[in-house]
Amino acid sequence: MTHAIPGLHHVTAISGPPQKNVDFYVGTLLQRLVKKTVNFDDPGTYHLYYGNQKAEPGSILTFFPFVDAGPGRAGPGMASAVAYAVPKGGLKAWVTALTEAAVDFDGPFERFDEQLIAVTDPDGLRIELTETARAVTQGTSTNGAPIDDGFHSVTLWLDTPDRTARLLTDVFGYASAGEASQGGEARYRFLAAGQGRGSVVDLITSNSASSGRQGAGSIHHVAFRAENDDVQRGWQETLRSQGFDVTPQIDRQYFNAIYFREPGGVLFEIATDPPGFATDEPMEKLGQELKLPAQHEHLRDQIERILPPVTVPKGGIPTQ
What we know:
Elements: E1 8-15, H1 18-28, E2 32-39, E3 42-51, E4 60-65, E5 78-87, H2 91-100, E6 106-111, E7 114-120, E8 126-132, E9 151-157, H3 162-171, E10 175-182, E11 185-191, E12 200-206, E13 219-226, H4 229-241, E14 250-251, E15 255-261, E16 267-275, H5 300-306
Parallel strand pairs: 1-4, 5-8, 9-12, 13-16
Antiparallel strand pairs: 1-13, 2-3, 3-4, 5-9, 6-7, 7-8, 10-11, 11-12, 14-15, 15-16
């Protein structure tokens, strides 16, 4: 296939109770809650979507917040970290804001000539803030930290990266962009054509004996962009011709999705850009009301009784 993947569409993870999740991603990381809906397969559980102010593909981090979820742990065959892009010169403001709010972070440190810091969310998911010239600021918060344009990258932890690397380069159209080793970890960087939002995928191997486990604080799957249904169908055909077991197209209300396991074991999705998150509520009111898919609308009263109430904070790092 001559078409290339332009970058990430979204990343989906698992969390514990939803209120702490909302407080962290809206209140601390300044993301917008762009959609409050339910897990289509378990409508008694929220599906929360966070993104940039325009709710654009490549900025969307979603969560299934299971109240009683046991702790998860990253390991081989899983995505282990998500990074947001910070505009050049903006990392210092984030360091200051996090320090003043007594939010722990690691760094700053350098990776592939970029400066970054790392925080963990309330369930232990690693979130990185990477300063890069590719980021486009969408404004600043009241604490002076820049509101970024979306993702920088995702990190995949693999036992052996070779076959995954070939999928990225030979099929998805990514280019190898360097490798580095430190502290028993080898990291290989790949960059999507165009170098836009969410264009970086890092593959790591580690001599750590850790084994992965799905649960709160773990990433469930990684989704890449397809500009429309025709492009997605092309990817479906290409991947099947390469021997991958690809699902039929699934309607996720705000995008259409196909899924497959990449060679290292990570669940990949290819999701369409349209119809987008403003299909059932206006852009200025995204995330304010509970939205249900048509097949669950008749259960609204029951679902609303089950779901715990969630209060959305104003963007900005809360004081302790």
